[in-house]
What does this fold into?
Amino acid sequence: MNKSDLIKVFEKDANISNEQATSIITIFFGSIFDGLVSGDGAEIRGFGSFASKKYEGYTGRNPKTGEKIEILPKKLPFFKVGKDLKDRTK
It folds into this structure.
């Protein structure tokens, strides 16, 4: 399911206009995005939690040439599945 599919589901199930459904989905994902950027993350009980993980820099190796390269520190989004979702997908 992609964003436009989700908008269609909201539109149909909530009996709202496409513009309203688009606004709801945009605000929802925007809030999660803002939480990740600010470092707070977001938790949806039963579904899962989104957080930013900080990774330290390290010396890596180019697999083709074997040359050593410096990998810079980075922050990446991380999703942890909630218990209810995990139980439903077994």
Residues 18-38 form the longest helix (21 residues). The chain has one domain: 3-88. DSSP finds three helices and five strands in the chain.
